[in-house]
Amino acid sequence: MMKLAMQLYAKMNETLEQIVIDSENHLQYAERSYQAIGATMLQLKDYILTYEFKNQEEEISFFKEVKPQFLRELIYYMKVFYIEAGKPLGDKEALAAYYKQAIDRINTFFERNHSLYIYYRMGKSDHDTQYFVRAGEKNELLPEYSLDIDPRFTTIHSYKLAKIQAYERLNDYLQHEIYLLNNPELDIVVDGKKKRRNLWTDTKSALIELAYALHARGAINHGKGDVKQVIEALEIAFNVQVGNFYRTFQGMRIRKKSRTPFLDFLIEGLVRLMDNTDLGNR
Questions:
Q1: Is 36 helix (H, G, I), strand (E, B) or coil?
Q2: Is the pLDDT of residue 147 over 90?
Q3: pTM listed for this prediction
């Protein structure tokens, strides 16, 4: 089960990275991403409906860890699409107020699901059988996403956990948009059209790895401040939101092979470029 899920996830991320390159604006990017993730989740659902979990631990792992990885992306891009599609045509103040209203709705959701949010952030597991086993829940689920109507493919808390994770990222997106509104010098004009600066087209974990390396080296601001400032600078420079970078960093620390694959690749690529350049000059 895990092998197939990770293959689907990796392929989905490759598709999303290509969509970033091919899309002209946030609205187009969000809509295309939503469609791609939805198609992937249909594949995942078809597989799970014919798969028998080996034990309760595997079922918990799927609904607590595996499925939310997909569903949080779907929820995130769905929300970004509706936010972008509903943007007011007024001035900067009206747009900032619109974004802040969306942030208020996120905060309301977190308040209503405070117990699960704390459970998730603290990495607890004592209620996993109740939360992430399909037979462990009795309440009806009223999802926003049609695939989660099927009780064979969801639990209430699996859905809410994915939504929490999606809303963490959505909050970062909205804060970033407000920051750009207040800092118009970050926009550039090309051929008479206003465009954002360069896009980060590698993985988000790669950017996080780079940010921590720069921070550890003290390469920015003489090493003063924290890694969050480095992350924010890279997000602005490359028009990307990385979400919960601390959780990603914890995963990097326990990688079985190299803990720094992106930095290793940078070194290999640079050395190869130098070698090829040397050969070309002979």
A1: helix
A2: no
A3: 0.68
